[in-house]
């Protein structure tokens, strides 16, 4: 029997203008006011919407996070956002190392590790994303790739309270192709075994490992019931209140 409380996190990516974002977040917060799904709920809007969304849901049980952060607190980094700035707006979490950042911005494990460390230093919970590509899976390298990424991306001082892992097979993100329960459980268990080596059995046993990759209302229950799946990082299905809420209710 696990004591890990599930986390359902919405990654809105580069979607939404102010009115859409506020309506979406308020829609979720309103539902949370009168119902208590068996999970924590988080939305990660684009940077432009963090302030209005955080204001709109202030006082509710819906947490707000960033989709990325810089590794430094301040300085000459045009266009970037520091973890301290996220915290200042009311964020509790920062996603780091999403595969779209690793691809679009050439972020390596060491960059992701530095960002995660900076997030922890600012008092945020880091959601560290890892996951294999289809070519790596087809080459039989899935476990090795995820082990290597977790080793390279996990910050010093990571523990179950300040860090969440998100396993997101790249081939399942935004594709409608979802990992089978057996595929997801195999990788989640391997990640947890690697965490045992890195942070010890007690913290590894408490650390949340989310699944991400085309999780939807119709497949969430099966995935969320797996022994080592402790929630979901949701892209497309996080953009509709009804879908996001249905996933939350599947916990
Ligand atoms: C994601 O962006 O992290 C993600 C899992 O997207 P989707 O749910 O759309 O596959």
From TrEMBL:
GO terms for molecular function: phosphatidylinositol-4,5-bisphosphate phospholipase C activity; triose-phosphate isomerase activity. Substrate binds at residues 11-13, 174, 214, 235-236. Residues 99-221 form the PI-PLC Y-box domain. Pathway: Carbohydrate degradation; glycolysis; D-glyceraldehyde 3-phosphate from glycerone phosphate: step 1/1; Carbohydrate biosynthesis; gluconeogenesis; Carbohydrate metabolism; erythritol degradation. It comes from the Bacteria. It is found in: Cytoplasm. The keyword Isomerase applies. Pfam families: TIM. One of its GO terms (biological process) is glycolytic process. One of its GO terms (cellular component) is cytosol. The active site is at 98 (electrophile), 168 (proton acceptor). It catalyses: D-glyceraldehyde 3-phosphate = dihydroxyacetone phosphate; L-erythrulose 1-phosphate = D-erythrulose 4-phosphate. It is an enzyme of class 5 (isomerase). Signal peptide: none annotated. Its EC number is 5.3.1.1. InterPro entries: Aldolase_TIM, PLipase_C_Pinositol-sp_Y, TIM_sf, TrioseP_Isoase_bac/euk, Triosephosphate_isomerase, Triosephosphate_isomerase_AS. Keywords: Cytoplasm, Gluconeogenesis, Glycolysis, Isomerase. Homodimer. Belongs to the triosephosphate isomerase family. Involved in the gluconeogenesis. Catalyzes stereospecifically the conversion of dihydroxyacetone phosphate (DHAP) to D-glyceraldehyde-3-phosphate (G3P). This is Triosephosphate isomerase. It comes from Paramagnetospirillum caucaseum. The lineage of its organism: Bacteria, Pseudomonadati, Pseudomonadota, Alphaproteobacteria, Rhodospirillales.
């Amino acid at each position: 029997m696990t004591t890990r409380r599930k986390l359902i996190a919405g990654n809105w990516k580069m979607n939404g203008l102010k009115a859409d974002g506020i309506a979406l977040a308020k829609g979720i917060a309103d539902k949370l006011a009168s119902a208590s799904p068996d999970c924590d709920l988080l939305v990660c809007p684009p940077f432009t919407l963090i302030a209005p969304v955080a204001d709109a849901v202030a006082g509710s049980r819906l947490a707000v996070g960033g989709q990325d952060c810089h590794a430094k607190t301040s300085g000459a980094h045009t266009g970037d956002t520091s973890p301290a700035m996220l915290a200042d707006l009311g964020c509790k979490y920062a996603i780091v190392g999403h595969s779209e950042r690793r691809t679009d911005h050439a972020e390596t494990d060491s960059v992701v590790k530095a960002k995660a460390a900076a997030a922890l230093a600012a008092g945020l919970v880091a959601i560290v994303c890892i996951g294999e590509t289809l070519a790596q899976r087809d080459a039989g390298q899935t476990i090795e790739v995820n082990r290597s990424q977790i080793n390279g991306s996990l910050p010093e001082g990571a523990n179950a309270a300040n860090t969440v892992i998100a396993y997101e097979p790249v081939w399942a993100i935004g594709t409608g192709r979802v990992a089978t329960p057996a595929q997801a459980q195999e990788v989640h268990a391997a990640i947890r075994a690697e965490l045992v080596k890195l942070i010890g059995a007690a913290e590894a046993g408490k650390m949340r490992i989310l699944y991400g990759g085309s999780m939807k209302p119709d497949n969430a229950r099966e995935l969320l019931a797996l022994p080592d799946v402790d929630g979901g990082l949701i892209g497309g299905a996080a953009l509709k209140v009804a879908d996001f809420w249905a996933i939350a209710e599947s916990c």
